[in-house]
Amino acid sequence: MFEFNRILVSVDTRMDVRNIVDKAALISQQCGASIKLVDVVAEFPRVVRLMLAGHQEIRETIIKEKRERLSALAESLRERGIDVEIDVLSGTTSTQVTSLVASGGHDLVVRTAKGRDSRRRGGVGTTAMRLLRECPCPVLLIAPNASANYAHVMACVDTSSDELVDAVLNDRVVAAATRLSQWHQSKLSIFHAWSIYGEEFLLVRTRDGDFRDLSARVRERSEKMFHDFLQMHGRNAGDQNSFIRKGEPATMIPAFASENNVDLIVMGSFARSWLSEMLLGSTVERVLSVINCSVLVIKPDRMAMPIYGGQFSEWESIV
């Protein structure tokens, strides 16, 4: 099911955030969810606090201005019948939002994909990337140039995996993409990319005939598992909106999105190993480094949430 009860919308009120708020409002109205609007004021660096007289008054003025802007946004949402709260937080945005999700029971975070001051290359900024790594609930990142309505939603699934967590995420990704495409009356594509594990290594260490046989078996298995998944969701293998491609997901997903004018990608994310994430980067992060459209990243009910200092707390399943 694609249902939310408490939506946390993280905004920078220095920017025009109406598109972000409107996207959250649509989900809220469809699910009957409440919304909490938050903005974060960073701490002044120590050198500024030491050298700038009246820095505390300046900071209080910034907080007051942000609260006033949040109040105006909240009033517009209340006029649509949405239950809204606001808050101005202090510190680092990703840390404050993640902590608020854990303490407040929020089940969706909505934020711009890239902030005004971001210097990170690609379509996703540093704060958004940190939220994807740290936040225990689904995260919807809105591209700065996103249109009011999505025209093409892309559901990315990993049906070649034997892992239970991937099967659960696949179901949730398709459910979420289907609902969003219905709400926006948009095209929906279901996409899977398969590859041969260690292909470059095997190419130079196996005979041509053996590698061709392996490739054919992997292709056959991948296509069967994808077709079985489609049938479970009431779709046919020959559906013109279902696509399977050979290649690494981190390469094939952005290519398909670009070629087919996708403006919202829905995909799952689950960190199996902190070491592999550090060395290789997750598929999600590699995809986000090159795309320029909005993305909804679905998380499992249960995940380890990093807390600074090397400790971990566990996000308990509500199921």
Automatic annotation (TrEMBL):
<protein>
    <submittedName>
        <fullName>Universal stress protein E</fullName>
    </submittedName>
</protein>
<comment type="similarity">
    <text>Belongs to the universal stress protein A family.</text>
</comment>
<feature type="domain" description="UspA">
    <location>
        <begin position="4"/>
        <end position="142"/>
    </location>
</feature>
<comment type="function">
    <text>Required for resistance to DNA-damaging agents.</text>
</comment>
<dbReference type="InterPro" id="IPR006016">
    <property type="entry name" value="UspA"/>
</dbReference>
<keyword id="KW-0963">Cytoplasm</keyword>
<dbReference type="GO" id="GO:0005737">
    <property type="term" value="C:cytoplasm"/>
</dbReference>
<feature type="domain" description="UspA">
    <location>
        <begin position="152"/>
        <end position="299"/>
    </location>
</feature>
<dbReference type="Pfam" id="PF00582">
    <property type="entry name" value="Usp"/>
</dbReference>
<dbReference type="InterPro" id="IPR006015">
    <property type="entry name" value="Universal_stress_UspA"/>
</dbReference>
